[in-house]
Design brief:
This protein has eight helices and ten strands. The chain is an alpha/beta fold.
Length: about 260
C-alpha cells in the first residue's frame, strides 16, 4: 500500500501554503516596479518556498540560459501546474498561459501581476498578437516559457508540439531551450498525483498534499538558434529532445497543419 501523508500534516501544509500564497500576492503588487534582476530573485525565492511547503524536492540537470543570453524561449512539456513553480525556482521567466487563468481567483491576480502573457486559445486570430508580444518580450531581454503541447499529460507520454507560438523565437532570432519536466515518487516510479489531469485545481492540490514527498526533475537540453529554422522544425526538435531525455513516446494524434493554432 502506498504511504500517504497523515491528515494533520496535510492540514499544516495547507495552512503554510495559504500564508505563502498571501505573501506572494502582497509581493506581486510591488513586483512590476522593480528591476529585472530583483524581479527574478523575488520569483525564484517565492517559488522555492512554495516547493518546500509542498514537500517537493527539485533536481536540475543541464544548463539553464545564463544572464548573458538575452533572448531565450523555453519549450516545456506540460504535466502539472507545478511546472510553472519548478521553472520559476530554477530559471525565473515569463509564461504564456490560456486567457481563462486571468479570471481565476488568487492565481489569476498573481499571474497578471508577474507579467504572464495571456492567449485566447480558441481564437486563431490571436496567434499573431501573442507572437508579436512574445518576440517583443524576448528582444527586451526577458525569457519566455511556452507549453507547446497545449494541454497537460499524465507524464507517461509527450503529446504533439504545436508550432504556432515558436514563430516568436524565429522573429526574435532567439535561442530555443527544450526543457523536460518529470515527477517521481521516492521509489523512482512515476508520480501520477503530480499530474494535473483533473479539471479541479483543489482536487489536484489534495493529491499533491497526500504525498509524503515528490521528486521533481528539470532538464535543460542543448539549445538551438532559431534564426535559420522555421517554426515546425523547432517544434519537432524540441519535442524529440524532450522525448529522448525522458525516454517517453511521442503521440501525434492529428496533422500539424490542421492543428497549428495557439495553445497554452
Amino acid at each position: 500500500m502506498q504511504q500517504q501523508t497523515p491528515v494533520l500534516l496535510q492540514l499544516i501544509r495547507l495552512f503554510r501554503l495559504s500564508f505563502h500564497i498571501a505573501s506572494g500576492l502582497i509581493q506581486s503588487v510591488a513586483y512590476p516596479y522593480f528591476s529585472l534582476t530583483v524581479r527574478r530573485n523575488m520569483m525564484q525565492k517565492w517559488a522555492s518556498g512554495l516547493l518546500s511547503v509542498l514537500a517537493i524536492k527539485l533536481k536540475c540537470h543541464g544548463e539553464p540560459p545564463g544572464h548573458n543570453i538575452s533572448r531565450a524561449l523555453l519549450a516545456v512539456n506540460h504535466v502539472s501546474w507545478l511546472d510553472v513553480c519548478i521553472l520559476m525556482a530554477i530559471c525565473p521567466t515569463r509564461f504564456v498561459a490560456k486567457a481563462e487563468i486571468r479570471q481565476w481567483p488568487i492565481l489569476g491576480l498573481l499571474s497578471r501581476n508577474v507579467g504572464t502573457l495571456f492567449i485566447e486559445r480558441t481564437k486563431r486570430s490571436d496567434t499573431l498578437r501573442i507572437n508579436q508580444q512574445i518576440s517583443s518580450t524576448l528582444i527586451q531581454g526577458e525569457r519566455v516559457a511556452v507549453f507547446p503541447e497545449g494541454t497537460t499529460t499524465d507524464g507517461m507520454q509527450i503529446c504533439h508540439f504545436h508550432a504556432s507560438l515558436l514563430q516568436s523565437a524565429v522573429a526574435a532570432n532567439a535561442l530555443l531551450f527544450p526543457v523536460a519536466v518529470s515527477y517521481k515518487k521516492p521509489s523512482g516510479e512515476n508520480c501520477p498525483e503530480a499530474a494535473y489531469v483533473d479539471p479541479s485545481l483543489i482536487a489536484s492540490l489534495k493529491k499533491i498534499l497526500s504525498q509524503p514527498c515528490i521528486d521533481a526533475e528539470l532538464t535543460f537540453t542543448p539549445s538551438l538558434s532559431c534564426g535559420s529554422k522555421n517554426r515546425r522544425e523547432l517544434a519537432r526538435f524540441a519535442e524529440q529532445a524532450i522525448a529522448n531525455t525522458l525516454a517517453l513516446p511521442i503521440v501525434h494524434k492529428q496533422s500539424e497543419r490542421s492543428h497549428d493554432h495557439p495553445n497554452e
